Structure formats: structure tokens, C-alpha cells
């Protein structure tokens, strides 16, 4: 219910022409979600485990700014997600969420974190062992849309060849890859301590 309320507020803001900078005119790009879904569902168990956020597009809902580590636990139906890192205020922070099949039967997952609204979660491309390219797009009355994209890595670093694969996947749906900013990761991150947040 909280997620629906937040979404309705966002739609009302758009309707009132007080448009946040992450809501832009146009429509979500076409993605062959049926093909991706058919291929990925049997492999969801391979997607489980730890993913580090390597890069992302502007996202006001991402409160973690550095050392972002996501742990996905798959129970056979959905993923329970624990995301840890450093907030914009420099404090350790943990966020809990779930990633589950779209409740309306659309061929993609839905991501639902505490204190945020549920949104589409499309695994645009992954090899399951090195990288994952994640895309989320929401349309508002076919006039506006907001989209968010992530590049994940199984370790705090990602080889350039895998970054290029994600960039190619995003370009194939007309996402401007210059929008990405790299998430600070590295030896100053205390990933072991984050496990106990």
C-alpha cells in the first residue's frame, strides 16, 4: 500500500507539471522481455549471491553512494535482498528489499525496497558469474517516463570487456551510456563489517 501511495504521488507531481529531473518526456524503450524472461526464469538460482554495484544512472532512490554490496538469496520463488554500503552522509547503511515476479503477470521481475516504490526489474543481460546489466523503466500516461540502469559485478572491480558488454546492451535499447557514473568501491570499503549491519 505504501508503494502504491508513493507511485500515486509521483504521478500527481507529473500531472501537475512539476516534473522531477528524472522524469522525462517520451516512452520507455522497447525491450524483448518475453525472450529474456523465458531464458532467465530457469536460471534464477544462478543469479543469487553477492553483486557489487559497479555503476548506475542518476537515481534519487539509491541512498547508498559508496561500497554498495547487494546480497540476493533465492527461495525458489523470489529473491530476498540485503543492500549495504555508505550513505551520502558517510554513514554505514543497510536496506532490505525483495525482487519477485511481476504480480500482474508481466514478463519481468519487480524490485521492492523498504521506503521506496515497487518498480520493474529487467535483467537486460548477464553471464551470472561476472556481470549483470539491470534496467528499470516506468511510463506515465505514455507521455513521460523515468528509467534507471545499473551495472553489477560479482567483485568490487569489473573487467573492461564486461563493462563494454553492458554498455552495448544498454545502447541496443537506446539508453545513453554517458549517463552512468561509477560507484566508488575498493580497499577503503569494509565489506566484512557491512555483512553485520
Task: Provide an overview of this structure.
With 197 residues, this protein is of the alpha+beta class. 22% of the residues lie in helices and 38% in strands. The chain has 5 helices and 10 strands; from the N terminus they run H-E-H-H-E-E-E-E-E-E-E-E-H-E-H. The protein has helices at 2-15, 33-40, 44-47, 160-172, 191-194, and strands at residues 24-25, 49-56, 64-74, 79-87, 92-101, 109-113, 119-126, 131-140, 144-153, 181-182. An 8-stranded antiparallel β-barrel has the order 2-3-4-5-6-7-8-9. Strand 8 (131-140) and strand 9 form a beta hairpin. The protein is globular, with a radius of gyration of 16 Å. The chain starts with a helix and ends with a helix. The relative contact order is 0.20. The model is unreliable at 1-10 and 12-16 (pLDDT under 50).
Q: What are the key terms here?
A:
197 residues; alpha+beta; 5 helices; disordered N terminus
User: Spatial order of the strands in the main sheet?
Assistant: 2-3-4-5-6-7-8-9
| Tally of helical segments | 5
**Could you give the distance between the termini?**
27 Å
Instruction: List low-confidence stretches.
Output: 1-10, 12-16
Radius of gyration: 16 Å
Give the percentage of residues in beta strands: 35-45%
Mean pLDDT figure: 91
Helix content: 10-25%
The outline comes out as: globular
N-to-C SSE string, H for helix and E for strand: HEHHEEEEEEEEHEH
Number of strands: 10
The biggest sheet, with number of strands, parallel, antiparallel or mixed sense and barrel status, is: 8 strands, antiparallel, barrel
Helix/strand-derived class?
alpha+beta
Amino acid at each position: 500500500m505504501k508503494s502504491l501511495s508513493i507511485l500515486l504521488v509521483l504521478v500527481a507531481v507529473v500531472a501537475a507539471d512539476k516534473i522531477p529531473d528524472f522524469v522525462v518526456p517520451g516512452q520507455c524503450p522497447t525491450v524483448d522481455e518475453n525472450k529474456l524472461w523465458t531464458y532467465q526464469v530457469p536460471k534464477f538460482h544462478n543469479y543469487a549471491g553477492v553483486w557489487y554495484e559497479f555503476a548506475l544512472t542518476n537515481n534519487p532512490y539509491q541512498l547508498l553512494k559508496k561500497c554498495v554490496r547487494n546480497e540476493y538469496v533465492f527461495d525458489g520463488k523470489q529473491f530476498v535482498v540485503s543492500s549495504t554500503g555508505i550513505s551520502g552522509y558517510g554513514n554505514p547503511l543497510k536496506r532490505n528489499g525483495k525482487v519477485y515476479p511481476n504480480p500482474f503477470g508481466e514478463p519481468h521481475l519487480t524490485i521492492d525496497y523498504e521506503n521506496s516504490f515497487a518498480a520493474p526489474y529487467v535483467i537486460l543481460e548477464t553471464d551470472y558469474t561476472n556481470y549483470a546489466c539491470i534496467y528499470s523503466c516506468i511510463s506515465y500516461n505514455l507521455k513521460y517516463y523515468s528509467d534507471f540502469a545499473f551495472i553489477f559485478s560479482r567483485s568490487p572491480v569489473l573487467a573492461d570487456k564486461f563493462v563494454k558488454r553492458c554498455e552495448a546492451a544498454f545502447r541496443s535499447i537506446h539508453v545513453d551510456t554517458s549517463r552512468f557514473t561509477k560507484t566508488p568501491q575498493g580497499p577503503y570499503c569494509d565489506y566484512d563489517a557491512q555483512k553485520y549491519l
